Amino acid sequence: MPKGSGSVRRRRLVRGLSVGLGALAIALLLHGFKVVRPLEWKSWDARLRLLARPERAGQDIVIFLIDQYSLDFFEKQQGLPWPWPRQVYSAVIDYLRTGGAEAVFIDLLLTESSRAGIEDDRDMAATMERSGNIFLALSLSQEEESWEALPASALERFSLAETDLPGGSYPAALSASLPVDELLRSSRGAGNVLFIPDKDGIFRRLPLAVSYDGMLVPSISVALARFLREGGKLPPVPVDSSGRMIIRYHGPAGTYKTFSIASIINSWAQIEEGREPQVPPSEFSGKTVLIGGSAPGLLDNRSTPLSGVSPGVEIHATVLDNLLRRDFVRVPAGAVFLGFLLLVSLFTAVGASVLRKIWQLIVLFVLSLALPCGAVWLAFRSGFWLDFVVPEFAVVTGFIGASLLNYSVEGKQRRFIKSVFRHYLSPDVIERVIQNPALLRLGGEKREVTSFFSDVAGFTTISESLAPEELVNLLNEYLSEMTDIILSSGGTLDKYEGDAIIAFWNAPLDQPDHALRACRAALGCQMRLAGLQPRFQEKYGKAVAVRIGLNSGAAVVGNMGSSRRFDYTAMGDTINLAARLEGACKQYKVPILVGEETYRRVQNDIVAREVDIIRVVGKKKPVAVYEIIGEKADLTPIERERLNFYEEAREAYKRREWEKAADIFGKIEGDALSALYEERCNTLKQSPPSEDWDGVFDLKSK
Length: 702
Known about the structure:
There is one protein chain. By secondary structure, the chain is an alpha/beta fold. It folds into 4 domains: 10-42 and 331-402, no CATH class; 55-325, no CATH class; 438-635, Alpha-Beta Plaits; 637-697, no CATH class. Helices cover 47% and strands 19% of the residues. The protein is built from 21 helices and 22 strands. Strands 14, 15, 16, 17, 18, 19, 20, 21 and 22 form a 9-stranded mixed beta sheet that branches. Helix 19 runs antiparallel to helix 20 (658-667). The protein is rod-shaped and about 155 Å long. It starts with a helix and ends with a strand. 38% of the residues are buried.
């Protein structure tokens, strides 16, 4: 890891944690004040629509509907307008008793005596007593009613003890509307059917009981479940602080097997006539039958998460099914929800603070949004209502907050770095520096680099023969082409000094192959310059030749200057020697010279020849210098043969065999370096060096 990147990551991590905790706090406020509760209701409705399974509905619960068809049929065919006489319900009760139904609930408020007279009520009461399993509806309102309620003592036999229900503060009823006393006394049980929906008018919860005049009066579903369950006790039911259970709907209206009551009444008439019934009573053996209205005029249709219009009796059937099968929806413990909210908040905010690339941020945002989706899906399958909207809000808040903070804190710095260094560093290097701006802190660090110095040969002569505008154009064109090659190889442009280019590799980023990169850049510059010569000749009438010196070794690299004005540069003997080698190119008549450390690092990939062993001005230690020829893979047989001749001549030169060396150098045509050595050998043959000659050539100038 580059030096300083750890502290940058820590700062980003701290920012992410801060934003995540802030997003958590905002989400908890929204959750606590129930600001997004309506959206959460809709998200739960969507889960039910997507994941509800109608096949899970109990097969032992059946609904008889007083639908519009039944009302129309009896009014037109039998002359029986609504409300029907009690004898109609007596016939249905006898029919079900014959079939062996387990329990029957009549979801009608029979608060007034029959229009057919008191005998009609008495006949129905007697039928109910014979059946012994009939339950009636009570209407306990949480608002003051205008009619006078029956005495509370009438409810005592239906009320429950606190130990019969889960703990909670059950809603209080202010008035009660009860069936006529004759029928109420003949029923096996009764329960409340009047409940308040959520504020959007949809029934998602139902209280197990209501409190009235010091008594706990059960809902009809609870009364039926206690009757049907062995031992008459409820299972542990998860409820909220108001004693409400979440209704687990298995499907839309019609999920439970439903019959039009007209077909049932008609079937009983057929039985009394000795004919085969339309629906045999045995169909309902051992089943619980709920009788209720669906005709619009009966005003008993309700909204559920799965149906805009659903018979109220089907809601009671669903709650009864939940109670009998222990098929409940629970709410996770507060600590669990808080932990989940903390997880998604920190995951999103920290990720958005630490990650930098656009595609990474997009993937993070998608994953962060998907995390609550996956969690609520798993929770639903396990029977839990895990809030969806608040965690998603925390995700969006954390992502946007972290992104805005990154932009405000790092955006300005990123833009500054890009604007300042786009001319000096390659785009890849700039991105790495942006990720770790500490690389550009004021001050230096010691590290291995390969230094690059280039200079245009005869630039003074060129500049004197061109107009200023032409000179500037030539220089800009030349520098642009060379700089592109340097930057594309990962080099860092140090500076321009007139026509000279100074660059280096392995800073600010680590580049283990920095020497090879520099050599390839030098070869690329010479190759590109050869291709530019025709254009330069045509436009400016001048040929441009460049000398390049490379050297590898330790240097001090960093921002040098004041806190208001500084340059990113490299300093040290390694850099100075590269400059000397560029100057030595003129003396040895070669385009590129590299130091021995550079050659050592690239000798497996680059073809080079030893030029000399030199001692530069101001230094006592000699160094071997090399001319790089090209990539090994690109060397032609002719070039290899010429190189072998040169190396043979150099060996003869080192052995002081001046005549042999001069003869071989002379045979290498078109090579300025060989010609220089031929001349040197002839001079040494005339004036041999002393016996302690070590082959080192002292450079007389920089």
